Amino acid sequence: MAVSFTTYLFSVKKEIPHLDDDLILLLNEIASATKEISGKVRKAGLLNILGSAGKTNIQGEEVQKLDELANEILLESLKNCGKASQVASEELEECIVFSDSGYAVAFDPLDGSSNIDVNISIGTIFSIHKDSVKKPGKEQLAAGYVIYGPSTMLVMSLGKGVVGFTLDIESGNFLLSHPEIKLPEKGKIYSINEANKDKWTNEGLKKFTEYLKEEKYTLRYVGSMVADVHRTLFKGGIFIYPADKKNTNGKLRLLYEASPMSFLIEQAGGIGTTGKERILDIVPQSLHQRVPVIIGSKWEVEKCLEFMKEE
Ligand code: AFP
């Protein structure tokens, strides 16, 4: 039988100095919580948990019932495991502080909410720091996501490459399925919401997407960052959510979207930038801070920056 998530963590413990028993316990709690969320997502239509919860969150977005449920499941797990010092969530205005030392967790409980009711891949994104979530992404101890797609996969980095596990429904275990995920140097796919093109503030970016079309790239855009980044990790290419006239700092949140995804992309051999700076160098100023996101294979991101600089 393939290696389970817990066995894998203990097997790499000696190679990763910061991977102590408390962090292993915390990661296992996140894995268990996402298994529970996966179960809810897979039969959401039968459980009357589709649709809106009839309220808006700190982002001004309509909260879906599954957003709320996923948030509660993760909060409960993190509280019970007793290893989390503080927790920040897309669905919570403020951080919840459990203690002044321990592991600080930031998460997007259900990324891609607009796709929930139409049964398109969604996910949970998590980022783990020591003591406080307000640290630059390069100091993450662990980051990853769980994608609820045709299969449920957990993709993670502990700062020594990227690894993937697939949820085995029979045993209920996340089993090692992708021991070493490496981003192709160059791809043939670009991912950006081109419907916003007229609002993009950088003309060079518009020329870049036209250039990719001439280069016979194809466009794929799901609208769930987890799904669009997962595809980019495996197929290569580039995912972009730029600043535009509406979202002048971009739309995606630094702590629980841009930073953990950039950590994975860099660990897999790619680049994560705002167009002006490395996303993992940014010192967070606020909990729900937004940043422009350009992440993916080296070749495409460097080419994109060339076009954006010519602007
Ligand atoms: P949430 O619905 O969880 O906020 O996620 C959606 C998202 O933040 C991210 O997953 C997508 O990449 C992006 O927004 C989609 O935004 P557009 O609908 O504006 O393209």
Summarize this, please?
This protein is an alpha+beta fold.
Give your account of this protein's structure:
There is one protein chain. The protein is 31% helix and 24% strand. The protein is an alpha+beta fold and 311 residues long. The model has no long low-confidence stretch (mean pLDDT 96). The relative contact order is 0.14. The chain binds 1,6-di-O-phosphono-alpha-D-fructofuranose (AFP).
Produce the secondary structure layout:
Layout: H1 5-12, H2 21-42, E1 52-56, E2 62-64, H3 65-81, E3 84-89, E4 96-97, E5 103-111, E6 122-130, E7 142-148, E8 152-157, E9 162-168, E10 173-178, E11 189-191, H4 203-214, E12 218-219, H5 225-235, E13 238-241, H6 254-267, E14 271-273, E15 293-296, H7 298-310
Parallel strand pairs: 3-5, 11-12, 11-13
Antiparallel strand pairs: 1-2, 3-4, 5-6, 6-7, 7-8, 8-9, 9-10, 13-15, 14-15
Helix pairs in contact: 2-3, 4-7
Bound molecules: 1,6-di-O-phosphono-alpha-D-fructofuranose (AFP).
1,6-di-O-phosphono-alpha-D-fructofuranose binds at residues 61, 108, 111-114, 193, 223-225, 241, 251-252.
